[in-house]
Amino acid sequence: MPGRPLPSRRTVLRSAAAAPVAGLGLAACSPGDDGAAPARPTAPVDLGAEGAVAGGEAKLYRDENVVVSRGEDGALKAFSTVCTHAGCPIKKLEGAKLVCPCHGSEFDARSGEVLHAPATVALVELPVEVKQGRIVVSPGT
């Protein structure tokens, strides 16, 4: 349309990031690696065998944007691995430390707490349980 300015690339990307997409984690304000922001799950997700996460350890499920840890007491915890700073999906787990590739934020995979800025808000905890020997993560609230 003559005389009407076109939207900027940033405006177009922000609009696309607001659209729901498949995956596990939070809807974010910045796009992920593929240009789309990970979204909140709409149904429980089966992550696999309960034995995949040993006591005192954590396992990163990259495709589902979730990390699951098991305490020494056997209790499971799950967190979204969408960085709370800029919405980037975290794809790197070093021991019990999650490292965001976008700006270097670091999180404890066992508690979701921020270990290193720029993030200032902990990861979102997700409900997790064992059903018939399988680890199942449910949508967060």
UniProtKB/TrEMBL annotation:
<dbReference type="InterPro" id="IPR036922">
    <property type="entry name" value="Rieske_2Fe-2S_sf"/>
</dbReference>
<dbReference type="InterPro" id="IPR005805">
    <property type="entry name" value="Rieske_Fe-S_prot_C"/>
</dbReference>
<keyword id="KW-1015">Disulfide bond</keyword>
<protein>
    <recommendedName>
        <fullName>Cytochrome bc1 complex Rieske iron-sulfur subunit</fullName>
    </recommendedName>
</protein>
<keyword id="KW-0408">Iron</keyword>
<keyword id="KW-0001">2Fe-2S</keyword>
<comment type="function">
    <text>Iron-sulfur subunit of the cytochrome bc1 complex, an essential component of the respiratory electron transport chain required for ATP synthesis. The bc1 complex catalyzes the oxidation of menaquinol and the reduction of cytochrome c in the respiratory chain. The bc1 complex operates through a Q-cycle mechanism that couples electron transfer to generation of the proton gradient that drives ATP synthesis.</text>
</comment>
<keyword id="KW-0411">Iron-sulfur</keyword>
<keyword id="KW-0479">Metal-binding</keyword>
<dbReference type="InterPro" id="IPR006311">
    <property type="entry name" value="TAT_signal"/>
</dbReference>
<dbReference type="InterPro" id="IPR017941">
    <property type="entry name" value="Rieske_2Fe-2S"/>
</dbReference>
<dbReference type="InterPro" id="IPR014349">
    <property type="entry name" value="Rieske_Fe-S_prot"/>
</dbReference>
<feature type="domain" description="Rieske">
    <location>
        <begin position="63"/>
        <end position="137"/>
    </location>
</feature>
<dbReference type="Pfam" id="PF00355">
    <property type="entry name" value="Rieske"/>
</dbReference>
